[in-house]
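Shipment paperwork, digital attachment
Item: protein structure file
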Amino acid sequence: MKKNVKLPIAILATILALNLSACSLGTATSTVDSASTTTQNSELSSQYFDSEDLDASYDSASANKITLNGDSIEGTGITIDGTTATIANAGVYEISGTLTDGQIIVNSAAKGKVRIILNNANISCSTNAPIFVQQSDKTIITLPDGTKNTISDGETYTLNSDDEPTACLFSNDNLAINGTGYLTVNAAYNDGISGKDDLKISQANINITSADDGIVGKDLLAIASATLTVHAQGDGLKSSSDSDTESGILYIESGTFNIDSTDDSIHSNGTVSILDGTFNMSSGDDGIHADNDVTIDGGSIAISKSNEGIEGSNITINAGDIDITASDDGINVAGDNDDSPTNENAEQNPSSDSSSHALGINGGNILVNAIGDGIDVNGSATMTDGYVIVNGPTNSGNGALDYDGTFDVTGGTICAFGSTGMTMSPSRTSSVLSFSMTFDEIKSAGTTVSVNNSSGTEMLSFTSEKDFQNVVIACADFELDAEYTILSNNETAVTFTPTETVTYVTKDGISENGAGMGGGMGGKRGQNGAVPSGEFPEGERPSGERPSGEPPQDATDKELPANETSSETTN
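Attachment content:
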C-alpha cells in the first residue's frame, strides 16, 4: 500500500481522506487524539467558563425595559441624562430600538451582576463608547436568538481621566457575551470590544470592523462556540496582559473565526490555547503569536497570508489540520523579530537562550508554504506523530527545517522541500529514519518525488508547490539495511540502502558528508543578514563548500517563480 499526497491541496483535511497506509496516520491514533482533546476540553471549559457565562436565558417579563427612540431614551431602573442612560444597580435590562447619538453606561458599585439584553438594539455614539462599563461586579451582555444588534462609534473620543474608554464596547471589569443572536461592531476610533479584566464570549455571532484591535481581553480572552468575523487594523483577537503567568491568556474552545488583520490575527502577551474550531486568517504579521506558549489540540486552521504563521516561545501541536502560508517562517519557536543587521538588545532578549524553547508535534496534519524557514526552532524539537509537509524556501539563506538543538523524530511523517544552502535533517538521535535527497539540478514546482521499497512498491509520494533542489523525507516505516529508490516524476533518481538514522543521498548514492549541499537557489542570507552561527548536532547539517559570492540582501525576499532560477544559482 502507498501514501500519495498531491500538493497543492485546497483543504488540508484532504490528507485524511487518502487511503491509510505506510507513513500515514492510523485510525487508532486519530481516535486517541480525539479522546484526549475531549477530556481537556471539559477541564478547561469548567476552568474558564461559569454556568452564567454560557446561560443566555432570561425572564423578559421581569426585566427592566429600556427603549431607544432616536434622540431620546425611556426606561425603568436607570438614570437618564439627555441621550445617556446609566445603569447603577444589578439586575436585568432589556434594550431595544435605535439611539442615533448616545450612550449606555454601567456604573454599579453594588454586588451582583448586571445583565444587558440587546433586543434588536442599534446604538451609535459619535464621541464615546456606545456601551461603557465603568464598574460592575460582572456584566453579561446577551444576544437573544434571532436578534440583530449594532453598535457604532466616531473617530474621536472625549476620554475620562484614565484615558478611557478605548473601544466601541468597553468594560473595566469582567465581561461576558452570550446568546445566538447577532452583534455588528463598527469601531472607527480604536478597538471593537475590549475588557480590562476577563472577557468571555460564547455562542454569539459577532462581526467587527475596527480601527485597531478587534477583540481584547486583557487578563483573559476565552471563546467557545462563537462565530466571529473580524476586520482589524491592529490585532484580530488579543490578550494583552503580561503582568504574571495567570494573565494574558487567550483560550479558544471552539467556534468559527474569519480574521483579516493588519497585525497578528491571534495575539497574546502570555499564552494561546486552541482546542478546536475553524479558522480562516489573513495577517499582516503573525497568524498566531504568543510571547509564551502556543498549544493547539485540534481544529482546522488556515492561515492564507502571514509574515510568520505560528510563533511562540514554545509551540505544541497535538492535533488539528493546519495550513500555513508565510512570507517569512512558517512555524517559528522563540524567534527574534528584530530584522536589523545587529541587535544591541540580543543579550537581554530571552529568546536568545535557545535551550529553554521547544517545538513538540504529537499529531495533526501540518502544511507549510514559507519563503523563509519552513520550521524554525531556536531550541530543540520533537515529533512523535502527525504529518508535516513543508514547501520551503527557494533561496539558500533559509531552510525547510532549521533548529539549534536537536530534532528527535520518533513517529509520524515529514516531507520538506527546499533549497540546498541551509539543508537540515532530523537528528541522528531519532528512532525514525530520514533521507535527505539533493538533486544535481533545480526541480520545478509540480515535480512529484516518491519513495519505493525493494519490491518496487510505492510507499509514499509528494508533489511540491515550488521549485526545490533538496527534499528531506522521514517516515516511521523506513528500516535500516533495506533498499529504497527515490524517484522524480517516476524516473529513478537514486537507489540506496540506509545504514544510519540519517542518510544523505545524491544521484551517485549515499553521500557520507552530505555533498551537494552547496548549490542553492539564491536569495538572502539567514536572520539579521548573516549566516547563522553556532554548533549543530553531528550529522544534522551536512558539511560541504558553500557557493561563492554574496547572496543579494533583498529585504523583500521574493520567491522564485516556477521554472525560473536566480542569477545566484550555482550547480
